[in-house]
Amino acid sequence: MSLVSVLGSQATGGTNIVSIVVLYAAIIGIFWFFAIRPQKKKQKEHDSLVSSLEVGDSILTTSGFFGVVIDIMDEVVIVEFGNNKNCRIPMKKENIVEIDKQNGEE
């Protein structure tokens, strides 16, 4: 029994397949609306936040540390933590959660 014989022998079989395809399309649309779309929106907001990063800005990292940006490279920033001027750590830009502008741009 092939697919062509099943579709040709029953008129309602074609409508069942169409309804199943519509149902799957609706499920995929709902999944996209509630899962993928908000994640992409969050990613765009984070990208714009990181692109506004400048030397001298105070930042908050994902691990909860506050620091001051000393140098900015392509994917890495050098951050100075605490009052000790020798505590400079390179970290990825994706680990920045919040930026506090210190240049009077508020």
Automatic annotation (TrEMBL):
Location of this chain's protein in the cell: Cell membrane
Disulfide bond as UniProt keyword: no
Transmembrane feature ranges: 17-36
InterPro entries, A to Z: Preprotein_translocase_YajC
Alphabetical keyword list: Cell membrane, Membrane, Protein transport, Translocation, Transmembrane, Transmembrane helix, Transport
Source organism of this protein record: Jutongia hominis
Pfam family, one: YajC
Gene behind this protein: yajC
Protein name (database record): Preprotein translocase subunit YajC
